[in-house]
Records
---
Amino acid sequence: MRLLIVEDEKRLALSLAKGLTAEGFAVDVVHDGLEGLHRASEVPYDLIVLDIMLPGMNGYRVCAALRAAGDDVPILMLTAKDGEYDEAEGLDTGADDYLTKPFSYVVLVARVKALLRRRGAGRAAPVIEVGGLRVDTAARRVMRGEDEVVLAAKEFAVLEHLARHAGEVVSKADILEHVWDFAYDGDPNIVEVYVSALRRKLGAGLIRTMRGAGYCLEAR
């Protein structure tokens, strides 16, 4: 899943991005409200972590603009303020949750996952079944028949994306876009590395390479 962090405290933003990336998310970071609104309008994010006190445009206005445009992306607001009025204003503009600084990183991750589960419950089943493969997107567990297959965070993210498009050809560029962050400029062959790892753990025939087009997860 792809997250956007809009936070002008660069050290905090990069720390959150590093932690959430380790959880298996693709994370983009911007430090300005206007840039955050532009990025959120251009990219279909799964969740936005949005600070209130931002240069360019504050978080209240960013949230209100996204809701006015019909964007229902879950928004977790961050603020250094502490008071009922601030929380009410944030929720009134359409935010889904509210976290006051300083906060525990463990609490933030729990809130993020809860918002994503809530959204997923209304959109798609949390467990994806492809043949004898079960991908539990909420618990982040994978079963092959009766056996659990332990995957690293990025391995699970690649498999989840393929499973959501089972039977379809998914390009390498599409996997990069959904699993790695916007600023990733490393070797695009990293996708092949993770697909190879998944084949070793799940069986060689489950993920087909469609030469020149991408990969396809098939029921077997």
---
Amino acid sequence: MRLLVIEDNRNLVANLFDYFEARGHTLDVAPDGITGLHLAGTQSYDAILLDWMLPRMEGPEVLRKLREDFRSEVPVIMLTARDELPDKIIGFRAGADDYLTKPFALPELEVRLDAVLARTRGRNPRKVLEVHDLQLDMATLEARRAGQVLHLYPACRKLLEVLMRASPAAVPRDQLEYALWGDEPPDGDMLRSHIYELRRAVDGPFEQKLLHTLPRVGYRLSAPAAGAP
């Protein structure tokens, strides 16, 4: 598995790394909520271990944004010392798949991870994103339109993923900037340049256009309307 650990307790993080890496898994770590949301929304993980009390953004808010803004279905287990029923209800309503109170035994966490993954595979999570004749394979990161391979820079591929996950809804400019740069976007309108490159790859060689600009709002990737040329 590739796991994301969003946790600011260094000792716990070290224990998680020692335990799961010894079993062949790969872990990334984020020490605060903003960084965790950025990684969770822009990278592909099998599961996320999410603390509640985090700097910059608390766990439930990270989870809500991940589910609502990024439309991510990645399994999430909340790890927290908050063991009251109202707290658990908040966690589950925010989108948690499981809730484990601290302190906990690492073998129990491993078993819960296995169980969550077994359940969530039944949701048929989207491994290949599709909009009209455009596909993005999340396993290989290969993009194709009408069977033709599209050559994309990493930033364009990330924008494509965010737009495809949201399709046919519009994605605001600030959300796309956050997907690329977190809360530190570069000076100048770099997003416009990346959108230009993405449009040239996705729409340039084709008659039907999928990527649409919504002035003063953002961008939308959507199938052509019925009867459109």
---
Amino acid sequence: MHEIRSGTWRLAASLLLAGVVVAILAGLLHAESHDANDHEASFTAYANSDVWTAVHLAQFVGIALVCVGLVVLSFALDVPRGTQAWTARIGALAATTALGLYAALQAVDGVALKQAVDAWAASGEPEKAARFATAEGIRWLEWGMRSYQSFLLGTALILLGIVIAARRPVSRIIGLLMALSGLAYLAQGWIIGEVGFSAINSLPTLIGILATVIWTIWLAVSAWRMKGAVAVKAG
């Protein structure tokens, strides 16, 4: 058996839960159209949004907290050697890379796309088509970045979830729910890469949100109930 300190678990759980809450609240304020793949309707909604920059900054903060929380979680697992140690380290690396890609994604979506749709909305008829094409090109770049960011975050969740389920410092179900949310992110990444923000992404998105809310709350409760040190199975 191996002992780990509960303080690291509490920090990781707090970061993760705070990040999920911030990301969800920011998402509720995001300007939307009925069909996100209807670019004319979407761009009109985006151009009319007065809180676009703030919303995307808040979304970045939320995902940053989640990714940092996953890295801290890899330290909390404290696997000294073996396959589980490498699994946790690769999960932490995936989370770190996902954060960097998400920062670039928000620069494209939160800044470049907003400027492009504002220019399109304000332009006269002779240049409107060109402005629209520019905004659409940025939108497609957003698809690609969002797709690969989802792949990386999903991979981090799956790998760290597997280690939690194997070592059982907390309920194994938490690890399994983490892995489920990771699979949902992988599905989202594939769909976005293929067809963009299609309605067929609604199911994996819903599964991912529900699973993530459940396991982050459960993990936070479990972490704050820990006292001193926790004994776990050796890696």
---
Amino acid sequence: MAAVAVAAVAVTGCEVTTGGSGEAGPQPQGKAGSALAAVDSLTVKGRAPKTGYARERFGTAWADTDSNHCDTRDDILKRDLKGVRYADGDCKVVAGTLSPDPYGGKDIAYARGRSKVDIDHLVALSDAWQKGAFQWQPSKRIAFANDPLNLLAVDATPNRSKGDGDTATWLPPNKGYRCTYVAGQVAVKKKYGVWVTAAERDAMKKVLHTCPDQKLPTGGNPTAAPPRFHAG
């Protein structure tokens, strides 16, 4: 999706102070409902140690937390691919096309078992762990790892260059997608209460100032997984 055209930025005269030990942010900017305005609602803190992080702390990969009898990976493939084909029924995706890949802008063929398509966590699990998730209940971490709001089918090559980077350290090579990408990260961090570093906040604002009317995405799953799911 192309970035929204540049519009004027409205500046209010009030100052937002985050709770706890978070730093005070700059004056809020952007229209109500925009991703730019939402950046100022995020708590700003330093990154915590990665100590204790493991993928298992977010539960089994691709758990069916929405109870639709398809795992989360297949749900996202069905949502994001075109020309989807199934092994049987309408759950197990075996082929399709990512057209285009949002990170690189190219069409990528998907074939189960030899795929060049990854399912990316917009906000990486490790990044979330170092910015608050180490304090969460397991059910919230499981929900976070399987929330469609935080998931996107993408080309594996640029995705693996991202690692667990945040907006301050990595942006999609496809510049036309950067506003949508950063808005998605802001939405996920706001929904789950994941904090940002000062450098990350500034990087988010730098991108979103080019598209101040970019809407903040909403939706996704509840922020707690059903009690039948467990994390390590």
